[in-house]
Every structure is written in structure tokens, then in C-alpha cells.
Amino acid sequence: MLTATDIQGKNVLLRADLDVPVKDSRVENRFRLQALLPTLKLCLENARRTCLIGHLGRPESNNPAFSLAPVLEELKRLLNQDIFFVTSGFSPGECWTGESPLALIENLRFDPREERLDRGFAEVLSQDAEIYVYEAFANYRPSTSLQTIPELLPTRTGIQFDKEIATLNQVLQNPAHPTLLIASGAKMDKLEILKGVMPKFDRTLLGGKFASPDHLTSDGLDLNQETTSLFLQVISQAQTIVLNGPLGYYEDGIHATATKAIFQALKDSSALTILGGGDTIAAIPTLGFKYSDFGFVSTGGGAMLDFLAIGTHPLLEILARKA
């Protein structure tokens, strides 16, 4: 657990989950940024200076369309304070000399070394930092910021990261039964991950491309009424429920029936309800629900499923080796 003492008077390099949906140069959904605030505010109250790093999207090069500038503006609004934006290449030294105690470095993925586990890049980013705080649970694939910087700096996990781990560990180690996994999606590689997760649950219900054709509407874009009723019946009997992915193509406003009904059932349930995934995070407010309607909403989708499958996160493995 990150404490004020860990960061008191220090230069903190904070790896944040800044990969949020952006449209017309504005952040569309700020759930992940709001989840960052407790750790960020702890740093602002206790650290000497804080330097934020993270990425947005999968840019092939230094592409302005993937700039973190809209994220910068949203964070300014959330914090009601100025943030120094380091745009002149990767010059972390600027983080510690600007007028503001908080700085943000431009998209890490603008530099190809982020994806290469590059020690030289890690040394550049770590320059003058005294402690590394990892608050990006959703980022679990190999990268310099995940796997190499923790080798160079004392590292702590952030407040939201710890909540994610504690909640998912409860599902794996001490759940109330029956347990239920509800999963949906369009990418078949997700189904491969699900095969490692499903044995951990008493029951699994699948939607989207993973559902049987006779469980879907005639156009294949939503669960049919009979299947939705079955899902609701199973939900009513479960005590621990994990949902990953909307059950239909809710974005068109036509095929949201099943997802809305299931969200409502989860809201009304006395079970521990855990929801995750980028599409799920977007669907919750779109369909008229609040994040607080559910027991826990994860900032991760693939990371959540990966943790449920293998019982750990790459960062935790790195910290265990260092201990």
C-alpha cells in the first residue's frame, strides 16, 4: 500500500493509465482518470514533484492524433491546477525543473523504445526520479515502463492498482458461491484467455461472437429474449459475478436490450458484482447507469481476465523477484 511516507519530499515518477477514449480532441470517458486521482493527489500532497508518464492508443510514430494533450486538459479540470506538459521529445529532466509540481510527458509510444524493453530508454525516463509508482493495472503487456523501470527505481503500486488486486484475489481465493462469469466480445483471441478463466467459476455465460447462434437475435447483434431471460435467472442465483464486455452491439442504440437488462440485474443483485473492459466502461454511462451501481468496476479488461487466468500481474512478479 502506497503511503505518504513512501513519497515524502521525493521526485515521483508516476506511471498512469492514460489510455482513454478521445474524440474531437476531448476525453470522452474519464473513468480511468478519476480512478487515478487518489494516488495522484497523495503524490501532490506529499512528493516534492510528480512526473506522469503513460500512453494513448497505438501510434505508429509521433502522430499528433495520439497526443496526450486532451488528457492533459482533462486532468487540469479534474485537479483544478496547472500541469507542465513536456513535449520536446523525452526530456524527463524538465519534469523536475518546471514551475508546476506536476508534469506530464507526451505519449510514451511516440518513442519505439517503449515497446522494446529498452534499458537506455528506462534510464532516460528514470533520470532524477527517486521512486516509481505504478498506477496502470490495465497495462500488462511487455513494455519498458512496465518491466524495465522497476529494475532501476524503488517501486510501489498505486491505490487503484491495489484495489484491483485485492478485489480479484477475493474472487480467486475466497469467493461467495455460486460464482458466475459473464463474458462477451468479438475477438477470438479473447476466447483463448477465457478458456483459462472459465474453470475458476461455477458457471459461465457467453455473449457476442462467443455465443451460440441460437442464443442471438436474427441479425446476431444481441442476445435474444429467451437467452436474456436465462441470463437473468442465473444472475439471480449467483453470489459472485464478474462481467467482461457488453452483451450486444449497444452502440447503435438498437441492440442494447440484453446489456441494459443484465446491467439492471447486476445493479439490483446482492452479489459481489465486478465489471471490467473498455467497452463495458463506456457502456455503463451510455445506458444510463453509474459506476457506483456496481460492487467494483475495473480499469482493465484484458488485464482483469489475465489476472483471473494466472493469478498475478507482471508487475507483481517483477516486485517479487526484487524482494
TrEMBL record:
- Known EC number(s)? 2.7.2.3
Q: Which Pfam families match?
A: PGK
Q: Name one GO cellular component term.
A: cytosol
Question: What EC class is this?
Answer: transferase
Q: Does the keyword Kinase apply?
A: yes
Does the keyword field hold Kinase?
yes
Name its GO BP terms in alphabetical order: gluconeogenesis; glycolytic process
Q: Which reaction does it catalyse?
A: (2R)-3-phosphoglycerate + ATP = (2R)-3-phospho-glyceroyl phosphate + ADP
Q: Which UniProt keywords apply?
A: ATP-binding, Kinase, Nucleotide-binding, Transferase
Q: Which InterPro entries match?
A: Phosphoglycerate_kinase (IPR001576), Phosphoglycerate_kinase_N (IPR015824), Phosphoglycerate_kinase_sf (IPR036043)
GO MF, one example: ADP binding
Protein family membership: Belongs to the phosphoglycerate kinase family.
Protein name, UniProt field: Phosphoglycerate kinase
Annotated organism of origin: Candidatus Collierbacteria bacterium GW2011_GWA2_44_99
Question: What are the top taxonomic ranks of the organism?
Answer: Bacteria, Candidatus Collieribacteriota
